[in-house]
Write a structure and sequence with these properties.
This protein is mainly alpha-helical. The protein contains one helix and no strands.
């Protein structure tokens, strides 16, 4: 009879105690875990997992991005260079280099041509 009485007390008291523990102790434990364990876990993650992830990103993602840049961006840049820079360079060459070349040709070739003309005239006149 005594065991039955104790069993009835257990059946009545234990759920109440479990409920009180859930309401009072669990929030305290959860708070302590948040304050003590989470910073440690976060630090371990930063020290161990982040370098691994960064390394994986470098090895996997960067080559893909570089390949995409080569395939998509470089042709666009080359096209823009052809459309914008080449005409400017050609224009600068026409404005700066051609007059210099023409001047050099006048200074070097004209006297030679005049000399040939004079020689040809002399030869024709002597016939």
């Amino acid at each position: 009879m005594e065991e039955t009485f104790i069993e009835k007390i257990r059946q009545a008291v234990l759920p109440l105690l479990q409920n009180q523990i859930r309401q009072a102790v669990l929030p305290l434990l959860q708070n302590q875990i948040r304050q003590a364990v989470l910073p440690l876990l976060q630090n371990q993650i930063r020290q161990a997992v982040l370098p691994l992830l960064q390394n994986q990103i470098r090895q996997a993602v960067l080559p893909l991005l570089q390949n995409q840049i080569r395939q998509a961006v470089l042709p666009l840049l080359q096209n823009q260079i052809h459309q914008a820079v080449l005409p400017l360079l050609q224009n600068q060459i026409r404005q700066a280099v051609l007059p210099l070349l023409q001047n050099q040709i006048r200074q070097a070739a004209l006297p030679l041509l005049q000399n040939q003309i004079n020689l040809t005239s002399l030869l024709l006149n002597n016939r």
